[in-house]
Prior knowledge:
Blueprint: E1 5-13, E2 16-23, E3 32-40, H1 43-51, E4 60-61, E5 65-73, E6 85-88, E7 91-92, H2 98-101, E8 112-113, E9 125-128, H3 130-134, E10 139-140, H4 147-150, H5 153-165, E11 173-177, H6 181-192, E12 197-202, H7 205-214, E13 218-221, H8 227-234, E14 240-245, H9 250-259, E15 260-268, H10 282-288, E16 291-294, H11 300-311, E17 321-326, H12 330-338, E18 345-349
Parallel strand pairs: 11-12, 11-14, 12-13, 14-15, 15-16, 17-18
Antiparallel strand pairs: 1-2, 1-4, 3-5, 3-9, 3-18, 5-6, 6-10, 7-8
Helix pairs in contact: 5-6, 5-11, 8-9
Amino acid sequence: MLVVVLKAAIYYGPKQLEIKDVDVPKVGEGEILVKVRAVGLCPTDVRIYFFGSSSVKPPIILGHEFAGEVVEIGGKVSGLEIGDKVNVPADAFCGRCKMCRIGCENLCEDPLSFGYNIDGAYAEYVKIPKRFLSRGVIFHLPDNISFEEATFVEPVACSINGVRKAGVEAGKSVVIIGDGPMGLIQVQLSRLFGADSIILIGLHDWKLQLAKKLGADYIINALHSDPVEEVLNLTDGRGADSVVVTIGVPEVIEQGLKMAGKNGFVNIFGGSRKGSAITIDPNVLHYYEICFTGSSGYTFNDYEFAYKLVVKRKINVKKLISHKFKLSELFDAINQFQNKEKSLKIIIEPTGE
């Protein structure tokens, strides 16, 4: 390993992001160094860039949906070789706190999280701390899976948690609000989970048409009709069994509640800006016995399941990639992300290969 300096995007605070040279991190016992070949531009990272987050400890390198190849291995590491293609989860949970002990690892009280409290993958190289290896969550990638495809394991894992929290299962009617990558992943998951009817609501005709190809039974453009009325019409006035809201806009969340039927589930999947608030009629929850919940992140079991779905191509992620940028073009990528009419999933290639 002859490289001693790498390029990285360092976050200092809201709208303070610099691409600069930094020292390659030294690898200690039980650690590895990965050359980042692809990293997904996550909406959460964009939100952090513009508005900040109390969970992020700057200065720090952002980026957590990544895949690459092992270029350096520390002492007492087994099962890995130089050149191995790998995918690494965004988080390593502690395994000791109350949440981990009861199986809610995604709510871990002491996680190590790339781009939050350890340097992430908007960089040419990223160091993988010992906890990730000791927890056994370094995933080997088969030769036929591209690095770009592998960046989707984390979003798919989060989506698995999301659709499960929404009660999606065989025979159920499902509404997914949002035609971004997460919504389109959840369309595919709902189909795999055996949903009887899948309705996707969005704002962009080309994304809605893609949703049809990926498994949606019905599509609704919320710019052209009232989505609540449309859902009620499509469900014979009963409302949906499961509603997943991938967009953290209060008005949209309120609409989602109005789409749920008796004994239904409504899951807030998308994060909202700090200070956001919604108005709900408690009688709707009470008399209809609606389960109104949220989901965040994934468990290791979710992640392993997502890995299997991606490498077996049970989820079509290639269709979701709209743009690729070099690390030096990260600001262009963020600007493109803002153009929802033209963009879907954006991939950053730090090493430009």
